[in-house]
Amino acid sequence: GAVVSQHPSRVICKSGTSVKIECRSLDFQATTMFWYRQFPKQSLMLMATSNEGSKATYEQGVEKDKFLINHASLTLSTLTVTSAHPEDSSFYICSARDGGGAGNEQFFGPGTRLTVL
Amino acid sequence: AQSVTQPDIHITVSEGASLELRCNYSYGATPYLFWYVQSPGQGLQLLLKYFSGDTLVQGIKGFEAEFKRSQSSFNLRKPSVHWSDAAEYFCAVGPWTGFQKLVFGTGTRLLVSP
Question: B74, B111, B94: which is closest to B27 by C-alpha?
Fold first, then answer.
């Protein structure tokens, strides 16, 4: 149980285009999902927290107009990188919190490697 | 301020030898502590977690961790390392409930030599 998937696993796009990454909780309802960014050989940096049916909460320094987050259902959150640029190239990881479970444990997706040319 | 310190960026261990990865935390409330492992290009897999009870926690893949409140530490151990354990290990701290974020350490890269 507690499986989180991400799609796509890898994406290469041209500068100026938008890219959508999906995060799904496959066998539980996720009231809260988190989006992280990870640069090579570095730790995870939280970008935003999304709660189902409400606006995402962005961390300081994260542009909400550039990184659009939608959490329309209890099993799906999407991150859209708008007008992507090479500096947006990174590994994006989502996690989901089981709304029906005890504690604040997060289950992580396998990540999406974004390369912007 | 909430923080997690993993003082070792890299550790190299011979296969079959014991391992200890250090983690120190600073947290204002009762912490919920985690160890995650990440293989290259992959997401994070939970090794173990601790909130209360026995301070020695058993996890998957033969790992264990000991919570020491007096030292604000949650070190990860394995008695005999396998080559497949080579990966990045992250310690994290967060609240037991609520929507507050987890705070991650900077990670320790484990290399296993033959």
Answer: B94
